[in-house]
Amino acid sequence: xxxxxxxxxxxxxxxxxxxxxxxxxxxxxxxxxxxxxxxxxxxxxxxxxxxxxxxxxxxxxxxxxxxxxxxxxxxxxxxxxxxxxxxxxxxxxxxxxxxxxxxxxxxxxxxxxxxxxxxxxxxxxxxxxxxxxxxxxxxxxxxxxxxxxxxxxxxxxxxxxxxxxxxxxxxxxxxxxxxxxxxxxxxxxxxxxxxxxxxxxxxxxxxxxxxxxxxxxxxxxxxxxxxxxxxxxxxxxxxxxxxxxxxxxxxxxxxxxxxxxxxxxxxxxxxxxxxxxxxxxxxxxxxxxxxxxxxxxxxxxxxxxxxxxxxxxxxxxxxxxxxxxxxxxxxxxxxxxxxxxxxxxxxxxxxxxxxxxxxxxxxxxxxxxxxxxxxxxxxxxxxxxxxxxxxxxxxxxxxxxxxxxxxxxxxxxxxxxxxxxxxxxxxxxxxxxxxxxxxxxxxxxxxxxxxxxxxxxxxxxxxxxxxxxxxxxxxxxxxxxxxxxxxxxxxxxxxxxxxxxxxxxxxxxxxxxxxxxxxxxxxxxxxxxxxxxxxxxxxxxxxxxxxxxxxxxxxxxxxxxxxxxxxxxxxxxxxxxxxxxxxxxxxxxxxxxxxxxxxxxxxxxxxxxxxxxxxxxxxxxxxxxxxxxxxxxxxxxxxxxxxxxxxxxxxxxxxx
Length: 656
Description:
The chain is mainly beta and 656 residues long. Helix content is 3%, strand content 37%.
């Protein structure tokens, strides 16, 4: 049970007057026996400030943020106790009584659902930021049963939430090359303060929002700096598992650094896994205590006591879209919908239910895409419109975003310089320039089938029957078309018997881009008036790999309809928000003669790599160049090995 009460003040003494921090001390006991509870976790929610009680149940938690906070005490076998507190820079003394948790076995269905739980952890390149900087982050996903990994989520949501509970940045990430990575650009006018990063999958909503990942992201005023304090040490925050090997004891400015990662067990290589590295200038980035990756990815010891709160949110494999098709009277209708992406690289075919409802899941694209669509019913066009449902996102109303858990003091100058090698300081916006050119008679997109076509049908040879497949009947030797059932099927007679189990349908290209969906279904929905020519190849075409084994049908559209066009009979459209395309972290290469080197290099993040790779010797390694800043650089490597163990390594690089 979660208790929320306002904390009564027992003792108040002004402390940390310049740092604006408070302190909470007290004792944790068993409510029924008054026995002290040792090793109970005392922490500030959504903030890396926590401590364990001693054997007598006592604790003293310094560096408590001033302002509104949630303060929680938890121990195995007890219900957590949470207090909502308005904190001032004073000392608070409290005693907390925990109640034993009542054992209530879950029904078999919910016990089974618990075996599909996911956990999220996020690491960032720095512990705090200033306006105009970029937050580089990497998302790790852990599974209570790693054998179910391939059947679980491939979509992660990351929000940045202000202290006024407003989502100022919402990102949708796709599992790209085995990793979730992203970045958040902080605007120039972003108000300084502590922000909350929230990460979750749609499937995790079934288990309650307290299962999401939360991390404080402080954004400081540009003319301010962090003051060091005696930060509480996490009981599980230690370097373990990784040894960072440097090729030199010291480096000069703009020198190349080569790092090789090994196991902390001497002589052993680093086990296979997913690892991220961040290198920061210690003069510009103070090493604040952060949310621990290990604790973020850890599951509860007794899952039988964690009851799912719902079953409505499915596992997402791609972009999900829900909606209803309605007629002119806004009544839902059961129809067949065909949606064409604006660039014609994707065709979606789906049916609505008796109330007009539909759901699309698994579409993959970046940024946003516009789809034109038409509806048919009993092979005739049906007029109506699609009404999309707005996704039900987790609420921010009850979130409590704490303040800074460290001291901040004013400075006379900006504390971090922007990266001049990316945007030189004298960069100017140019006036608009109009460029004129002569249209090419033939373009690369319409070269034709690689290796040549066996048959070409031009536009004047096509009769408009409303279905392009009917126009092809009898015109291409060996082409079999069957429209007895819906959708139509199309294949070359040569492909019959070539595969006992696999598809015999040919590869369909539209302007040399493979089209999604069944070829017959896509072809019957293409307007004949859009087509310039159709090329056919019955042979096995190795240039198209496995896709070309059953032949190729290549459609080339007329000029002016190859992009942002729809068939003449498709008038309606809708827009889907796709995945956010992550930026690539760029750092200078001073070994390159073409590298711009006349600007001062004052990077605060020297190097960021969300996915370390193995070198030719089978070791995880990386290289980068130092900046113009002398002093010490902090190297942090952390990640998860293939057995699900979180490991971490920290090292210091000296630059003279």
